[in-house]
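Ticket reopened. Same input as before:
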Amino acid sequence: MTFQIMINLLMALIWMFMNDAWTFASFISGYAIGVAVLFFLRGFFPQRFYIGWIYAVVKLVFIFLKELILSAVEVVGQILQPKLNIQPGIFAMDIDLHRNWEVTVLSCLITLTPGTLVVDVSPDNQTLYIHAMHLPDIDKAKEDIRNSFEKAIQEVSRT
Amino acid sequence: MKSNDVILQTVANIVLFIILMFSVFLFFNGHHEPGGGFIGGLMTSSALVLLLLAYDLETVKRILPVDFKLVTAAGLLVAVGTGMGSFFFGAPFLSQTYDYFHFPVLGELELATALIFDVGVYLVVVGITLTIIQTIGEDR
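Engineering reply: fixed in the latest deploy. New output:
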């Protein structure tokens, strides 16, 4: 990804040199032409085309915002109830992520969405211990996290 | 059982650079706005202290093989040197001057001798803070 972005920036710079126009507009047009050329020659790179990677990052951000709003509404609902009928609990969840930053991002996303909280990470980075505010069904909670966050993060790190 | 610090370490690796950039920004802003050598030095030290918290003393020593007592000495030398430098122009000790210079790419810049003195302050603060923290941390 980084290599493709560097090449694209270099192409934009060369475009500015050729036109002798040192403006932001000429940089944008050169960058757009660079994107088109890279898309045409995307088979040369061992990694995937980097615009797809950017799309995956943006999608992860929007998934996070959606989950944040939904779970905040849920917590407000729990607080406003006269009687607390929650079952707190801690469950272990095996994750299929390998790099340090992936584990970190997943833990931060789980923690920032209210209702769930990462308590600990196992020493081999393969298990998260998660505390949930309301845990009627452990398997359902695991599936929710898998389908929302973990899939999106795997999509970002896919080469 | 040793706990797994993977989240702290990954976040510290990124935040470290933001703190360092902010400390340099504070250092150069000291002439006309709040900031300066002292607060910039403390900011830099706090970034390194964050590294010390996320990793351990040996790792940080391997990354930064600097003897911070020498940094303190160098900072004092720079500060005294700027004071001595005013003798060459027949001015009293520690007098300062500034002027506007024109650079080819950067344009008009104000250069002040007080900035060199601030470099000395910065080095002394970084050196002393990290010497204190490392000395306390080594006693197990």
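Residues 5-138 of chain B form one domain. Residues 45 and 130 of chain B are 7 Å apart (CA to CA). Please confirm and we'll close it.
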